[in-house]
Design goal:
binds adenosine monophosphate, binds zinc ion, alpha+beta
């Protein structure tokens, strides 16, 4: 499958990996929008949040409940705070069609987002 994030998950193309386990990999965004900008993805190819199945809930819960808080601690965002974003579909601003969770931190965020 011609999916850039699947290739990163299989280490077929390089990425700066911040975390990895059997189901999940996290790597630094190539075009960071904050001092810390990490993408956390399920290794399984899921196109978007809208394409998840109930069984995908396990890996998504793992990402939200374990991986992101751990990364936030590791990169000193736990106290200052951070933002977690899942762009979904065209109007959601999703450009890579493999579900990914943005972890952004290290600066003050604005609301509403653009
Ligand atoms: P989204 O717009 O939510 O689909 O986010 C896709 C993100 O993937 C963007 O922030 C891109 O900068 C990032 N990106 C695209 N290709 C790569 C890559 N090869 N390695 C790391 N980040 C990437
Ligand atoms: Zn994929």
């Amino acid at each position: 499958m011609d999916c850039i994030f699947c290739k990163i998950a299989k280490q077929e193309i390089p990425a700066k990996v911040a975390y990895e386990d059997d189901s999940t990999i996290a790597f630094f965004d190539l075009s960071p929008q904050a001092p810390v900008h990490i993408l956390v993805i399920p290794k399984k190819h899921i196109m978007s949040l809208q394409d998840t199945e109930v069984a995908d809930g396990n890996v998504l819960a793992h990402i939200m409940v374990e991986v992101i808080p751990q990364l936030a601690k590791k990169f000193n965002l736990a106290d200052s705070g951070y933002r977690v974003v899942i762009n979904t579909g065209d109007e959601g601003g999703q450009t890579v069609k493999h579900l990914h969770v943005h972890l952004l931190g290290g600066r003050s965020m604005q609301w509403p987002p653009g």
